[in-house]
Specification:
Blueprint lengths: L1 E10 L6 E12 L8 E12 L1 H11 L8 E2 H12 L3 H15 L1 E2 L5 E4 L2
Antiparallel strand pairs: 1-2, 2-3, 4-6, 5-6
Helix pairs in contact: 1-3, 2-3
């Protein structure tokens, strides 16, 4: 049985504000091979927070990974690999990181610190 954690975006059913939910998916591999079929055994909500809270948590742990001139693609890969953030949400997190870290992206590829 395999387990995977990931953050997904949802909307609060009460206040309708966007949230990020950390879910744990337990699955069973049914056959062997390059892309074996799997069966989802269980899905558990591990945590829920706002996008700003998630960004703040990522920011506190990101210091060794971000450097002047990092590309958006590199940062997205770090967010996926180190923080289990789905690729479709990377742009939202990167936008928040640009605000929090004082980054700009002049040509649309590399992120640079504001001098």
């Amino acid at each position: 049985m395999d387990s995977n954690n990931m953050y997904i975006r949802t909307t609060c059913p009460i206040c309708k504000s966007p949230n990020c939910v950390d879910i744990l998916i337990r699955e069973k591999v049914l056959e062997s091979g390059a892309f074996p079929p799997t069966e989802i055994i269980d899905v558990e909500v591990m945590d829920a927070c706002t996008l700003q809270d998630l960004t703040r948590d990522v920011l506190l742990q990101l210091s060794g990974y971000v450097y002047n001139g990092i590309t958006k693609a590199e940062l997205c890969k770090i967010l996926k690999d180190k923080f289990s953030i789905l690729e479709r949400y990377c742009c939202d997190i990167i936008q928040q990181l640009k605000i929090e870290l004082g980054l700009y992206c002049k040509e649309g590829v590399h992120l640079n610190f504001v001098p």
